[in-house]
Amino acid sequence: MIEVVSKSRCIECNQCIAVCPTNVFEKGTDGYPVISRKDDCQTCFMCELYCPADALYVSPKADEYVSILENDVVENGLLGSYRESIGWGRGRKSTAVNDGSYIMFREINKQNTK
Asked: How far apart are CA 58 and CA 24, in angstroms?
């Protein structure tokens, strides 16, 4: 579930508003996106994936309401962590490349294209 929009990192591109399939965000009066319908979040991570500034944190715990503070998310390196783990963003490699599991997927792809 979407938990944090960091105003200190946000560049007001509003990509999160544009890509959210359930309309969770609204543009705030100050121009920054606001989580306005948190209950509608499907934990699809689209907002975090498309945020070029790593200003969002989506908790993988979709059904749990937890109070997460931005400082805690920053201290634990969680802003944009899903985006980073799959390799989205300049200079990043997915964890599949790091741990070698991409080889398995490459082999499956080869077999499926024959």
From this structure: 12
* Dist. CA 71–CA 68, nearest whole Å: 9
Beta partners for residue 18, in sequence order: none
Residue pointed to by tokens 């799959």 = 86
> Could you give the CA distance from residue 105 to residue 99 in angstroms, rounded to a whole number?
12
Please, what are the domains in the chain? 2-112 (3.30.70.20)
pTM over 0.85, yes/no: no
Nearest of 62, 53, 55, 61 to residue 22 by alpha carbon: 62
Which of the two residues, 94 and 27, has the higher pLDDT score? 27
Please determine, for residue 98, whether its predicted confidence score (pLDDT) is greater than 70. Answer: no
